[in-house]
């Protein structure tokens, strides 16, 4: 029995300044299985609230949702480093709250780390978790869980005052011991500056090609939705493919073209070997 061991925080840290880390989101076992050979990191993002559950934002995502999808992704993957997002409301109150919920995610899913949308205030939570054995990925810039304060999804750090806020978020997460930091939706040169300054690898999404890795929401890059943010490159056209397949199935059912003989069972012939 061969057992492929998973990448560790050491492997992730070693990628700083080297070949870019490949990261994608997954929420279920088959998708995790398909991407596992290609990915360094798999993120069970709270984007699952929008991508899988049809919520208007990630604010409604629960611990139970993250754990259920985290378990599925762990079953489907073998070698990638798996990070599970801490959902809105599960870590902001206190270090204790953050630890109890992060520990629950680690224990119930078997994932390697958690991610926190880390406003500068969250540095205390990050340090608290890391000191107690839970690797934490930070997430700065556009923080989708803060959509109701921002008034929408909007790129950050394109003006002077915002640059300092984002830079401070990244510095705080780095100093607190985050093993990596996601930089989302920020001006290119700000992502460059953060990447050059922090000691841990940065993973960009709508950030810059100089980041130490890149992440996209898998269903966005596969073209499952009509709309995707500016920073998504479409590597597939899943929506068209699925629509065509389902349309063909519907037509075949209605015309009795499906099922054919090969897709049905005939009467079993008497078998001499069976009594
Ligand atoms: O929830 C998510 O998918 C994320 C990534 C886009 C970074 O946080
Ligand atoms: Na997220």
TrEMBL record:
One of its GO terms (cellular component) is cytoplasm. InterPro entries: Pantoate_hydroxy_MeTrfase (IPR003700), Pyrv/PenolPyrv_kinase-like_dom (IPR015813), Pyrv_kinase-like_dom_sf (IPR040442). CDD domains: KPHMT-like. It comes from the Bacteria. It comes from Hyphomonas atlantica. It is found in: Cytoplasm. Binds 1 Mg(2+) ion per subunit. Its cofactor is Mg(2+). Mg(2+) binds at residues 46, 85, 117. 3-methyl-2-oxobutanoate binds at residues 46-47, 85, 115. Its EC number is 2.1.2.11. Its main location: cytoplasm. Pathway: Cofactor biosynthesis; (R)-pantothenate biosynthesis; (R)-pantoate from 3-methyl-2-oxobutanoate: step 1/2. Keywords: Cytoplasm, Magnesium, Metal-binding, Methyltransferase, Pantothenate biosynthesis, Transferase. Homodecamer; pentamer of dimers. One of its GO terms (biological process) is methylation. Pfam families: Pantoate_transf (PF02548). Belongs to the PanB family. This is 3-methyl-2-oxobutanoate hydroxymethyltransferase. The active site is at 184 (proton acceptor). GO terms for molecular function: 3-methyl-2-oxobutanoate hydroxymethyltransferase activity; magnesium ion binding; methyltransferase activity. Catalyzes the reversible reaction in which hydroxymethyl group from 5,10-methylenetetrahydrofolate is transferred onto alpha-ketoisovalerate to form ketopantoate. It catalyses: (6R)-5,10-methylene-5,6,7,8-tetrahydrofolate + 3-methyl-2-oxobutanoate + H2O = 2-dehydropantoate + (6S)-5,6,7,8-tetrahydrofolate. It is an enzyme of class 2 (transferase).
């Amino acid at each position: 029995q061969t057992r492929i061991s998973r990448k560790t925080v050491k492997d992730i840290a070693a990628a700083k300044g080297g070949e870019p880390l490949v990261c994608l989101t997954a929420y279920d076992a088959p998708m995790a299985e398909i991407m596992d050979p290609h990915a360094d990191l798999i993120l069970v993002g709270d984007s699952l609230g929008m991508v899988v559950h049809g919520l208007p934002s990630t604010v409604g995502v629960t611990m139970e949702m993250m754990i259920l999808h985290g378990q599925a992704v762990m079953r489907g993957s073998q070698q990638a480093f798996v990070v599970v997002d801490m959902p809105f409301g599960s870590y902001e109150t206190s270090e204790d709250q953050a630890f109890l919920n992060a520990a629950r995610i680690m224990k119930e899913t078997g994932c390697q780390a958690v991610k926190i949308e880390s406003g500068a205030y969250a540095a205390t939570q990050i340090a608290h978790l890391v000191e107690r054995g839970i690797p934490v990925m930070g997430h700065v810039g556009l923080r989708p869980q803060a959509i109701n304060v921002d008034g929408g999804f909007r790129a950050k750090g394109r003006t002077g005052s915002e640059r300092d806020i984002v830079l401070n978020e990244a510095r705080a997460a780095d100093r607190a011991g985050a093993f990596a930091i996601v930089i989302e939706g920020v001006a290119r040169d700000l992502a460059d500056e953060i990447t050059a300054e922090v000691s841990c690898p940065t993973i960009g999404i709508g950030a810059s090609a100089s980041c130490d890795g890149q992440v996209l929401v898998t269903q966005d890059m596969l073209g499952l939705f009509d709309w995707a943010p500016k920073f998504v490159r479409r590597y597939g056209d899943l929506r068209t493919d699925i629509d065509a397949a389902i349309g063909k199935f519907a037509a075949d059912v209605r015309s009795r073209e499906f099922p054919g003989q090969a897709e049905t069972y005939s009467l079993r012939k008497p078998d001499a070997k069976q009594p």
